[in-house]
Amino acid sequence: MSDAPIRTLVVEDDELAARAHAEYVRRLPRFSVVGVARTGAAALHEVTHQRVDLVLLDMNLPDLHGLEVHRIMRARGVDADVIAVTSARDLAIVRGAVANGVAQYLLKPFTFATLRDRLTSYADFRAQVTSVAGDEIDQREVDRMLGDLRGGSSEQQLPKGMSADSLERVIGTLRSSDGAITAMVAAEAVGMSRVGVRRYLEYLVETGLAHRGSRYGGAGRPEIEYRWRGAP
C-alpha cells in the first residue's frame, strides 16, 4: 500500500466553511489539501491541471451545481472520487448524487469528528482496494470494502443531547430571519427553551454556519445575537 497522502481538493463557496473544511482535512495524517476552490469552474480547473484523489464537493456553488461539476469531471476523464459536502437535503439531489457515483454524502452542519470518521472510512476503502491481489474479488471482499466505505451509521454525529430534528428547526428559523436574532426570539419561533436553543445556536457558530455578535441598546449588558452565514 502506498504511503502517499490522499490528495484532496476542497470545493466550497463560503469562505469561512472552506477554511474550516480544509483545516479539518489537514488534521488527518493520511490526507493532504492540494487546493481550495470557491466555484465550479475553479474546481474543474484544479482537477484537470493537477492530480487529485478526492474532492470534497459542495452541491450549491454560485456558477455550477455540484452534480454538473461531477458530470463534467467524468466527461473529461477525471477519476477522482467525490464526497458531497452540502447543506442540500432535497431527496432528488441526494438521489442524483448517488446515481452519479459519489462515494459519500455528508450533510452540513457537521463536527470534525463526523468528517474525520467519513474520511477515515474512505481511506480504509482505498487501502482495501489497493491491497487486493489480482483482478478478481469474491463477495466477501466486496462486502468488506463497501462496509469500510460506508463507515457504519449514516446518522450525523451531533453532540450528546442534541437532535437532528431540533437542529433543523433552529437552522430554518435562523435562515429565514431578515437579520440577526437573539436566542429568545429563536426559542419563541421554534417552541423550545431559550437555554436549549442557545446550545444549538452556539453549535452552529462552532461549525462555521452562524455568526455570533453583540447588540448594544443602552444601559445594561449587551444582548447576544446570531446571524446565518452558511451556504444557501
Summarize the structure in words:
- The structure is a single chain.
- The chain is 46% helix and 18% strand.
- It is elongated.
- Strands 2-1-3-4-5 form a 5-stranded parallel sheet, with helices on both faces. It has a 3-stranded antiparallel sheet with strand order 6-8-7.
- With 232 residues, it is of the alpha/beta class.
The chain-level mean pLDDT equals 82
Straight-line distance between termini: 40 Å
Percent in strands: 15-25%
Low-confidence segments, given as residue ranges, are 137-148
Rg from Cα: 20 Å
- Number of helices in the DSSP assignment: 9
Which helices and strands occur, and which strands form pairs?
Layout: E1 6-11, H1 15-26, E2 31-37, H2 40-49, E3 54-57, H3 66-75, E4 81-86, H4 91-99, E5 104-107, H5 112-131, H6 139-150, H7 164-176, E6 181-182, H8 183-190, H9 194-206, E7 210-215, E8 223-228
Parallel strand pairs: 1-2, 1-3, 3-4, 4-5
Antiparallel strand pairs: 6-8, 7-8
